[in-house]
Every structure is written in C-alpha cells, then in structure tokens.
C-alpha cells in the first residue's frame, strides 16, 4: 500500500490531469437529465433568463420558498454563455478545480506539503465529488466560499478578517448553513477579545464584511424582486418536515398530504412568505406540543446524515434514483433484477462496483477520524489550530438537525474530515505512528 501511495504522490500532476479530463468527458458523454433539486435550480435559472432578470424573478413570488439566490445567479451567468446542461457541468468542473486548490491551500497552512498531497489523493478518491459535477447542486460553490473564508480567517489580519466575513456572507447566500461559519468567526474573535488579544478590530472587520455583503446583495434583490432577499427562505419547509406526526428524522413529504399540518389547499394562491409563515407556525406549535418526540429524532437525523453516503452514486453510475435504502428494500422483496430491467448489464456491474468502493472508502475515512479523535482527546482538539473548522462543523450540524438529516447535507463537512484524516494517513505512509497525541 505504501509503495502504491508513494507512486501516486510522485505522479500527482498526471493524476490531476486524468482526474479533470475524465470529469469533462463525463459531462460531455455521461450526463443524465436533471431531477429533483438539480432540476428545480435549473428551472429557477431558466425562469430568470426568460424574464431577463436576476434570481429571484418576480414570477417566483408564489414558489414555496426562495432557494439559493447566489447559486442560481451564477448558474444564470453560465447559461448566458451557452444555455445547455453541459454548461452547468463544465461550471461544476471549474468549481471542483477551485475547491480542490483551496483545499490544498488550507491543508498546507495546517500541515506540511506531503500531507497536503496525500489529502489531494484522498479528495480525489471521494467519488461523491465527481458525481456532484454531473448534477446541479449548491455544494461545490458553497465549498469554494467556505474554504476561501476560512483561509482568509487564518491569515489573522484586519483586512483578511473583513474578507473572511465577506465570503462567509456569500456562503449564506448559497446555503443558510453559512451562518454556522459566520457565527464561528464571531465566537472565536469574541473569545480572543475577552482574553485581551486585541481582536476587537478583527471582530469588527468580520461583522463589517458580513454586513456589507448582506446589505448590498439584499438591496439588489429588493430593487429587482421587491423583497430584501440575501439567502434561501426554505427554513420553515425544512423545519416542518422534521416536526410533525409522521417525521422520521429523514426527508419525508407525508406532512404535505391532505389532512396533515403542512397541507396547503391552494398553494398557487399563497406567496412564499405566507407559506413560510404558515409552516413555521405549525412546526413550532408541534414542537411545543411534542418536545421530547422532536428531541428524540435528533439521533436519527445524525444517523441519516452519516450512515448513508451514496447521494451522487446513482447519477454517477447512470442509474438515477437507486440509493442504498431503495436497493436494500428491493433485495428484501426479491425484486433486485427488476431494478435493472431495460438497462445494459454493464451498468448494473458498474453501479455495484462504484457503490461498494464508495462505501468501503467512506467508512475507512470515518474510522480513521474516529480513532484520531479518541487518541487526540477532545479537550486538545478544542484548543488546537483546527478550532475554527471544528466550531463551524458543530454549529452547522446544529442548524441542520433542527430540520432533518440527509446524506448530502454532510458534504461540506466531508471536505474537512478528509483534511483531518490526511495527517494520520500521511504519517502511516512515512512509517510513523498512525495517530498522534497532539494537534
């Protein structure tokens, strides 16, 4: 294994070329039509192109919620160049390249160059990132923005703190989870200010960066749309999915069926604000009436986030919609071969190869992370140079588990999990102890 990894490290440039050329080829020859969230973001962008406006378009006032305005606007710019699904795929390849560069840059700040190169190899082996290139989701742009914000934060100057706040706010305009990162910056600088480290200017700079982005972006949407919008407004709909009698801790739309607390008889007659208020009130009412049941769902939400990890694998293997729970159900029912009816045999083989490899790799990464945490000891982690990242993960998870758990929601955290794991793997390859007692 050591010889293989050393050979790969020596030929990292060639591997990078193969990695990105293969993505371009996948986009050109392997892309499936968009479905689910990918299709919805594409629809939003096409609506804006139709009405010659930025997102959100006035015609989207009666949508269920406003979704990822910054991401949709960047998608619009790409589609203005060439209105094609493949354009979004190429944009994703570029975002993946930028995310990888930032991942490497951050790794070099935290570790040595060899560990950073090992991190690149581990990054490339995580197949969900490749699958993301074929879809139309917010994860890659969000990853670029949070990595940029964190890199600037580590520079530890007033100017870099301002830029970290600016990029953290931009991440909020893609996914509300970005509030976890902005809050982590605030908390750390407040603690350092209390400790008399003269960080008041740094704290002010981060707050200023966040505020300026929100004010400018929100004002632009106020002018074009009529409402002050700077982020997604899907909090209420996500909240009620995780707060109702049929809630399981995972994505479940039964709450919107007739007779349920999320049901709206004539949704086309209500604005996104009215729907959000309705869902918010009903969800909060249910939580107040069933606090222990709601709290009991939290472990299940975490379970659904971290036990499953095939959120792009069906797309990557060209069998859309075949996730592990569905596969397991079909096998139990004796309907395994029905899944692949009408599909070439090689696709079934490809699907199982990719699925098995991805899960083996995922649990390998998670086991190393678990043993590293146990060995390092928790109190040392929270006093380490990793504290800004760890605090973001904890705050981000806290935001997520208010609603429901989904395997895709952990993708931003996987970037940092792979980053952490690269150190013990690198030490193993050099013949040192796999785990160290300090950070």
Beginning-to-end CA distance, first to last residue: 26 Å
Q: Would you tell me the overall average pLDDT?
A: 92
Shape label: globular
Using only C-alpha atoms, the radius of gyration works out to 22 Å
Helix content: 55-70%
What is the count of DSSP helices, taking H or I runs of 4+ residues? 22
Number of strands: 0
Percent in strands: under 5%
Total number of domains: 1
Q: Low-confidence runs (pLDDT<50, min 5 residues)?
A: none
Q: By helix and strand content, what is the structural category?
A: mainly alpha
Q: What's the story with the biggest beta sheet?
A: none
SSE series? HHHHHHHHHHHHHHHHHHHHHH
Outline of this structure?
This protein has 439 residues and is mostly helical.
What does this structure look like?
This protein is an all-alpha fold. The protein has one domain. 69% of the residues lie in helices and 0% in strands. It contains 22 helices and no strands. α3 crosses α4, α6 packs across α22 and α10 runs antiparallel to α11. The chain is globular, with a radius of gyration of 22 Å.
How would you summarize the topology of this molecule?
Layout (H helix, E strand, L loop, with lengths): L1 H9 L1 H18 L6 H16 L17 H13 L3 H26 L2 H13 L1 H7 L5 H17 L2 H15 L5 H17 L5 H26 L9 H7 L30 H18 L1 H6 L1 H9 L6 H4 L7 H9 L3 H4 L5 H32 L1 H4 L5 H14 L10 H19 L10
Helix pairs in contact: 2-5, 3-4, 5-6, 5-7, 5-8, 6-22, 8-9, 9-10, 9-11, 10-11, 10-21, 12-13, 19-22
Please supply descriptive tags for the structure shown above.
439 residues; 22 helices
């Amino acid at each position: 294994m050591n010889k293989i990894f050393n050979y790969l490290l020596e030929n990292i440039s060639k591997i990078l070329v193969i990695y990105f050329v293969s993505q371009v080829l996948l986009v050109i020859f392997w892309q499936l039509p968009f479905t689910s969230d990918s299709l919805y973001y594409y629809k939003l962008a096409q609506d804006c192109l139709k009405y010659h406006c930025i997102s959100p378009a006035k015609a989207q006032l009666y949508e269920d919620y406003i979704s990822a305005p910054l991401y949709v606007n960047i998608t619009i710019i790409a589609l203005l160049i060439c209105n094609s699904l493949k354009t979004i795929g190429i944009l994703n390849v570029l975002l993946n390249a930028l995310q990888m560069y930032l991942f490497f840059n951050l790794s070099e700040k935290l570790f040595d160059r060899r560990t950073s190169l090992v991190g690149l190899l581990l990054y490339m082996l995580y197949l969900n990132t490749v699958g993301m290139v074929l879809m139309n989701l917010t994860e890659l742009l969000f990853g670029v923005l949070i990595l940029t914000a964190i890199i600037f934060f580590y520079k530890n100057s007033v100017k870099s703190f301002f830029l970290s706040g600016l990029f953290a706010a931009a991440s909020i305009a893609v996914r509300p989870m970005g509030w976890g990162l902005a809050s982590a910056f605030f908390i750390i600088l407040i603690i350092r200010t209390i400790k008399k480290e003269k960080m008041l200017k740094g704290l002010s700079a981060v707050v200023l960066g966040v505020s300026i982005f929100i004010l400018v972006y929100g004002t632009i949407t106020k002018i074009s749309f009529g409402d002050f919008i700077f982020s997604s407004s899907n909090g209420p709909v996500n909240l009620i999915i995780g707060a109702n009698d049929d809630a399981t801790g995972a994505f479940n739309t039964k709450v919107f069926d007739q007779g349920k607390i999320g049901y709206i008889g004539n949704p086309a007659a209500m604005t996104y604000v009215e729907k959000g208020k309705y869902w918010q009130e009903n969800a909060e009412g249910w939580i107040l009436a069933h606090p222990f049941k709601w709290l009991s769902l939290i472990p299940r939400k975490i379970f659904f986030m971290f036990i499953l990890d095939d959120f792009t694998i069906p797309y990557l293997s060209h069998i859309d919609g075949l996730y592990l729970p569905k596969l397991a159900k079909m096998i139990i029912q004796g309907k395994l071969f029905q899944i692949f009816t009408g599909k070439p045999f090689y696709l079934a083989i490809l699907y199982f190869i990719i699925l098995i490899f991805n899960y083996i790799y995922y649990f390998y990464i998670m086991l190393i992370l678990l043993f590293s945490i146990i060995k390092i000891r928790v109190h040392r982690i929270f006093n380490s140079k990793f504290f800004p990242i760890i605090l973001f993960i904890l705050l981000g998870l806290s935001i997520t588990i208010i609603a429901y758990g989904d395997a895709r929601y952990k993708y931003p955290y996987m970037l940092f999990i792979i980053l952490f794991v690269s150190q013990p793997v690198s030490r193993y390859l050099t013949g040192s102890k796999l785990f160290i007692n300090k950070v």
